[in-house]
Amino acid sequence: MTSSPSPALRRALTDVAAFSHLLLPQWPLRPYQTAPAQAIFDRVLRRSGDQLAIVFSRQSGKDELLAQVLAALLVRFSRCGGTIVVAAPTRRPQAQISRDRLWSRLMGNPLLASMSESHDATIMIGKARVTFISAAPTANARGQTADLLLVANEAQDIESDVWDAVFDPMAASTNAPTLFMGTVWSGSTLLARQMRHLRALESVDGIQRLWEVPWPVVARDVPAYGDRVQARMAQLGPTHPFIRTEYELKELEGDAGLFPDHRIARMQGDHARLVRAEPGRHYVMLIDVAGEEEAGSGPLAYGSARRRDSTALTVVEVDVASRKDGRAMYRVVDRAQWTGVPHSELHDTLVDLARRVWHARQIVIDATGIGAGLASFLTASLARRGSLPGIEVIPFVFTAPSKSQLGWDFLGLIDSGRFVEYRDDGNRDGDAAHVTRLYQAQLRATTFEVLPGPGNLLRWSVPERDGHDDLVISAALTAVLDRRDLRPRIASGSG
């Protein structure tokens, strides 16, 4: 830096918005970014030791704000020195992305580029440096000291115990402020904990420490962003967890279960339950396969807490024509359940249902473990034979990631109004009505949690003490079907 900086440059050394305007004009900060950016900068100058949090709607400029604050601090402390530590849930790609964004901003200005140095995970201007590290439980992050600023980026994915033991002490001896950034998910995350703490402090002294910017605020400055969010809301539904958390900044209500009353009400249709196919309709069978128990046969009491896992069937009608957007509508028209039935016997029953009763075009089946055998036999039995058309069998293997994605996708179908149930069976007796009531009980008993770490892994099930989730899993397999092009094929050619 020159010994006699211009008035504009002197202002840029204390005002982040002025720094951005003067030195990074290609990436101007938006109005909703400038207040929290300046608050961070001021807390660093004062060595306040404060904790702050910035929670922005997804892809609305949180990381750009951080990069420009870091650039301004590097310039401001280039002579006297100091260290900033930025922790992310993973070294690659998350910490690396933050590091690369800061470097690209510095390289975008000839003056800043001439002053800057890069050494792997550290970027320097003069004596000031920013180090980007992983906050993964297995990372070796001890020994760092943050005497200017400590940052937890994507804090919702950093484990609280890891942060408290390894990272919080980095700023303890220097009284450096700590900044938490990320996206709201469940109330059990590090970010949610800190947000509650900062709100409590604000209620006492009125000093702002938490900045929340939901999507409507961003849309006022960036109309195209608002259009994009509204398109996502149309696709997923306004109550989908991704919408509520990533865009509206609302915590997931885990205590209400994965299917709270408002979501169950959203699923309720007005069409009748069927016992067989109607002409000209497109039907699909969705099967969750139970572990085989050859020694057992016949039904067990539905209310028994010791009831064995069952094979569950959901039959849906696929309707593409009624929607203008080309996405399918799924109407549940029947469901059934078999408990303790050998797979050899179940195979014959499913083949009969597929060919004679429902004239199914596809079957989606759980092919995990022993289910792979049943899926393979059905594939062979339902292949095209002479005048009999083939029925496509679509296997689905359950893993933690695949079940997570299935859950998110199923919620998207429900919340967008594209998955609806038949009318209530009312007070009807018999197995059919009993299975409906059991399905509704399973819905209300389904719990969930979003695991910490990248990917927002959704873990969902009915706790063992409350029974099973076979009927719910069977219904959720609709989401596998939704990944395929189900539009009717139109013949073409000269004939």
Major sheet description: 8 strands, mixed
Q: Structural class of the secondary structure composition?
A: alpha/beta
Tally of DSSP β-strands: 16
Sequence of strands across the biggest β-sheet = 3-4-5-2-6-7-1-8
Separation of the first and last Cα atoms: 78 Å
Residue share in helix: 25-40%
Anisotropy-based shape:
elongated
Q: What percentage of amino acids are in beta strands?
A: 15-25%
Question: pLDDT below 50 for ≥5 consecutive residues: which ranges?
Answer: 293-308, 490-495
Structure annotation, total helices: 18
Q: Mean pLDDT across all residues, rounded?
A: 90
**Rg estimate, integer Å:** 28 Å
How do you describe this structure in short?
This protein has 495 residues and is of the alpha/beta class.
What descriptive keywords fit this protein?
alpha/beta, eight-stranded mixed β-sheet, six-stranded mixed β-sheet, 18 helices, elongated
